Structure to design on (511 residues):
């Protein structure tokens, strides 16, 4: 594999106008957020040509991960990355081994001649965040060694539902780490909540926050920059790090599956190597779709990225009008992991397309006024690559029902938002005939109540009954990790006000 030359890649904050501080990928992963409030980005991107794609096609998933990641995380060794990827994407975590002798954590389902689904939810928590969060703790552990850091990392997570559980599973009982998760008390599904409050592990803590996801995320960002909390942690030999998709260590593993899906589409003769594809991604914090953008900018033949939103359509409006305006009503939907008004990773796109000076201005306007308008030039660049669509609750339910009835494919509400948006895109762009990859981000059983109601039109008695009825109705089986939740011990029943988050962290650090 090493016949491909590797350029060293440094990382810089999206708000570092003079590029004063260039750091290694390990340092970026150790830090999470930059001290100036920006996010870390590679200064340059690697390029993958057809020769590399052809070679990648012959590898199994962990090998592909090591090969792709090595080009972004250039201070990690290929063998090191391979052993991490093998452990992270093992068959016992992600299901049976494939023909190439590794687990295939991202199987494709071909629904029609034009639409292929990539299922990203075969990991321990049945949502796509496992793809990143099974690998990221290993990247962080190694980063502590590489950067000579002393003490341990205290991971703080604000979650709209799926990240929290996936991070807890990824970090539980990992050496030199502690993890605390905040979730919006009324903003997650019953199953998501049960998964989190019953979490096992000695180094974990979970708290509900009286507010929505943005309250929780804003609270976490504030704590990161609160000198009093930092000092309290230092006294315990701890420093902050983040597992949210603001951390590059979370984003990088997500780039891999776009390469992998592309190679699989070629192997299955859906496309020929070199053909351009479009991708539809159900989007919240703009992490998953941004990873696809990075893959495209690194040479993967991707033309259009369809950004699919639910009723919280701040990104749809941004892509269509060039104005990001968070001053709007917040809706709780049946696709809760996309109920977000501040999509943090969008800052990385602004940086990539317009540079740090413009980005810093937009971010300042966002934090001071809650709104910014991008330049016409940037707006054009955004629209060249992205199409923005949204599906309201009725459209989402209709997509679940229709996909099941017409294609015999059971999808969760987040994936259904993608299907609904993809149909809109097709209606508005009848001339576009490229193959579409649709990203499926959660098991339908993780949101069994909503899925059951959408298909039958009946109210679900509760999530667990709905899962059983859904299984009987469709002849599909719930993933084993989602069964038996209700009989587990509740370890973290507490709900706190956003103002108490800092205190909770200090208490947890002292334990
Ligand atoms: C997190 C999540 C999303 C949104 O992904 P982003 O990277 O935040 O855009 C979509 N669907 C599900 C099921 C998720 O858990």
């Amino acid at each position: 594999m090493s016949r491909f030359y590797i350029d060293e890649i440094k990382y810089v904050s999206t708000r570092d106008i003079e590029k004063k501080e260039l750091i290694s990928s390990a340092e970026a992963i150790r830090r999470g957020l930059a001290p100036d409030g920006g996010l870390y980005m590679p200064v340059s991107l690697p390029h993958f040509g057809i020769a590399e794609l052809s070679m990648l096609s012959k590898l199994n998933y962990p090998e592909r991960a090591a090969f792709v990641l090595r080009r972004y995380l250039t201070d990690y060794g290929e063998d090191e990355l391979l052993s991490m990827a093998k452990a992270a994407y093992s068959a016992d975590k992600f299901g049976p081994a494939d023909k190439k002798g590794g687990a295939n954590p991202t199987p494709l389902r071909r629904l029609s001649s034009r639409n292929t689904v990539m299922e990203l939810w075969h990991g321990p928590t049945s949502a796509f965040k496992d793809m990143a969060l099974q690998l990221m703790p290993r990247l962080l552990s190694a980063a502590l060694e590489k950067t000579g850091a002393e003490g341990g990392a205290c991971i703080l997570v604000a979650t709209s539902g799926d990240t929290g559980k996936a991070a807890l599973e990824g970090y539980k009982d990992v050496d030199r780490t502690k993890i605390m998760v905040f979730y919006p008390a009324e903003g997650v599904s019953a199953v998501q909540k049960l998964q989190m409050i019953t979490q096992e592990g000695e180094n974990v803590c979970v708290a509900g926050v009286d507010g929505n996801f943005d309250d929780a995320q804003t609270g976490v960002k504030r704590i990161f920059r609160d000198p009093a909390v930092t000092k309290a942690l230092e006294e315990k030999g701890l420093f902050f790090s983040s597992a949210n998709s603001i951390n590059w260590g979370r984003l990088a593993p997500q780039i891999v599956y776009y390469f992998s899906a592309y190679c699989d589409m070629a192997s299955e003769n859906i496309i020929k190597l070199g053909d351009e594809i479009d991708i539809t991604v159900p989007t919240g914090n703009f992490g998953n779709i941004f990873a696809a953008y990075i893959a495209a900018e690194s040479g993967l033949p991707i033309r259009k990225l369809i950004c699919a939103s639910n009723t919280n359509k701040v990104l749809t409006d941004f892509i269509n009008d060039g104005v990001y305006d968070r001053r709007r009503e917040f809706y709780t939907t049946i696709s809760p992991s996309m109920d977000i008004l501040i999509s943090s990773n969008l800052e990385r796109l602004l940086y990539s397309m317009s540079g740090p000076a413009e980005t810093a201005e937009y971010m300042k306007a966002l934090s001071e006024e809650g709104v910014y308008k991008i330049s016409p030039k940037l707006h054009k660049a955004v629209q060249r690559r992205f199409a923005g669509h949204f599906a309201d609750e009725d459209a989402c339910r209709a997509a679940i029902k229709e996909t099941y009835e017409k294609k015999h494919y059971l999808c969760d509400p987040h994936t259904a938002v993608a299907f609904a948006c993809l149909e809109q895109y097709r209606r508005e762009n009848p001339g576009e005939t490229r193959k579409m990859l649709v990203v499926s981000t959660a098991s339908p059983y993780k949101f069994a109540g909503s899925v059951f109601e959408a298909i039958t039109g009946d109210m679900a008695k509760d999530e667990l009954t709905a899962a059983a009825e859904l299984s009987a109705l469709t002849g599909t089986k719930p993933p084993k990790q989602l069964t038996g939740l209700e009989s587990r011990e509740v370890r973290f029943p507490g709900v706190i006000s956003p103002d108490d988050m800092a205190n909770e962290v200090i208490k947890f650090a002292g334990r």
User: Anything to note?
Assistant: The radius of gyration is 21 Å. The domain at 132-248+490-509 is CATH 3.40.50.1100 (Rossmann fold).
